[in-house]
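# nightly structure sweep
# worker-07 picked up a monomer target from the shared queue
# config: single-sequence mode, recycle default, output format = structure tokens
# input follows
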Amino acid sequence: MRYSLCNCESRLTVAIRVCEASDMRSTQEAATTAIRLHLAARNKNQSWLAEKLKRSVFWIGRRMSGDVLFDSNTLDEIARVFGVTVAELLSAADAVKVPSAVEEAVAS
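# output follows
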């Protein structure tokens, strides 16, 4: 009986961690899509954004590819570059559905 309780607790912990990771991934994807939309609207690329942020192209590329998550400070810096708030930056991803072909073209 005791083993069963521990087993249930560990399954619940794993389930919670999976949900949290899923939320983080979807937030990351929304941020990446929003940034791509803002770049495309201004006919700019990741190199331009990296320059404005005084960071390397490698640094921004790691975040845009999802290898490294955006933190709140970085999103704030990016929003300021675009002249919007973080909320306005992230809402761009909801406003427009970008076809994958466009996302690929903007990413390159």
